[in-house]
Amino acid sequence: MRVPNSVVLPVGTHVDCCQEEEVEEKRQDIMAKITAMLAERKSNLAHCINNLEGSEEPKFYVDQWERLKEMESCTLTILNLVAVNCTDHHDIKKLEATILEHVKNEELFPEVVRVLPPVYRQVEAAIVDMAQSEEMADHGMMDLQYLLSKLSQHKHLANLGRELLQDILRYLHRIGLVVWYEEIKQLESTVFLQPTFLITMFKLLVRYHLVQQLESIS
């Protein structure tokens, strides 16, 4: 809701826990709730903006007004919900195909046709090889400067600079190949070449009844 021109694909899981007729009923219910939520958000934003504009001292609220107007201008495209049975490989492939179909839609993603410089692909391939090598630790964490030095050992990447590598990492982060939290000071020099490791960590730390489980330990 805060990202300009964002596109959202709702995915309903656990289809295997539902009767066939329930799936369509739940799909319609979820889409109706999303539509209602967006309408309520639009109404609330308009109400807040009107309140600020009608205040006795509107000049004191310029920053808030600008923030609200910016949020109001963020368009949100909601695609049709995809219902999947996560235990069925066929359904997972169907979801993958649906995502790819939407991503290739130039109306939804105008930048999808942008051509990347060859060095982006070269760095991507080198990082994939590095992540899959036996030398790589399971956690896949690597210091940014060390990563640069390792990549520079490749003949065609000998002139790779830190700024260009950072641009490439931003792209690789966006497509999900690596995770790089450059905006977090404590993590800006660390690149996660194995994003699945983070997922495993989050599953251990963020889970149902975690607080109760911790409190039960003497």
From TrEMBL:
Organism domain of life: Eukaryota
Protein name, UniProt field: MFHA1 protein
Organism of origin: Piprites chloris
Gene name, Swiss-Prot/TrEMBL: Mfhas1_1
